[in-house]
Amino acid sequence: MRTFPLAKRLQALPPYLFAAIDKAKEEVRAQGKDIISLGIGDPDLPTPEFIVEALCAAARKPEHHQYPSYIGMLAFRQAVADWYKTRFGVDLDPATEVMTLIGSKEGIAHFPLAFIDPGDLALVATPNYPVYPVTTAFVGGEVKYLPLTDENDFLPDLDSVSEAEWKRAKLIYVNYPNNPTAASAPRGFYEKLVAIAREYDVIVVHDAAYTEVYFDPADKPLSILEIPGAKDVAIEFHSLSKTYNMTGWRIGMAVGNPSLVAGLGKVKENVDSGLFQAIQEAGIAALQNGEPYAAKFREVYKERRDVMLKCLGDIGISCRVPKASLYIWAKVPHGQTSQEFVTKVLRQTGVVLTPGNGFGTPGEGYFRISLTVNTDRLKEAASRISSL
Length: 388
Ligand code: MLT
Hints:
single chain; globular; seven-stranded mixed beta sheet
């Protein structure tokens, strides 16, 4: 059998972080170890039943059995606009400022095709979701990383970018509540970002997938679109995945500046044929009636966060108290690299952690815990780690 060489753009690319973790996990499982997976941010609780029911009813409608609309059903886009108004006080025109996505990852991945030419500069706050720089590089873009560290409260230092770089930059990727550091961004950060982006004509790509997983009403995360003038420069990617436990459904949305939404739409028309409309109908149900469920899930994650923080404290592992997201970003015990630590933990205990360096160089020295197993399993995971 012939083996065909990969395109150059793939040759240097490491395996996708979560695929590599899955592979390592399966190897250890095959040795008979009981696996506790704190690796990927994939909610373990089921999608609320009323959303499943809405899908079942919608799946029976013949009009959904044909191609969906490219941009998404107007009714879903209207539900997104209504949800943004209620949740963030943001006005969106469903016709031009909202687009249905096959999960926010799909939209984020396609976005550079619409706005990055070879040689264009993209700024990426890092550690980061791997998709931002990888798909920028796919289209020939150049990446400048802005480190997120304890010292800068995991907010990119916008003043570290020179005037020449701001002039060259085509876009900047930010993500709050942040994956993987679990940091939140204050309003002042967004205000400064929007002001600079407007001054230098830079697109702001905000990945807001975790805004609904917060632990105190006083810490409710913002949409960047709440900042006056943001719609001039920003597109926000959001998702139903983490809010309503719908990762497997692949449903998300891009909202914001109409020219950015339209540019993404032009790419999508050429590469996909939209999202099954029955899923969009279920998405409408989720957006319209899901808030009491989202509130319950927040309570669950808060309890898990507190249990895990206590366990980590007891075994001398330090970390900040996250105000939002599904994650804890913790320091690797002294003297080990991130990879050494998570490999040892996986091989010896069956607990899957994500190595911080997998999200970029400033993640070295950290590991990420995903709070997507129940409290008994979290305690068990901590007890296994402490036995090392
Ligand atoms: C993560 O674990 O970082 C996320 O679940 C990945 C994703 O949302 O695609």
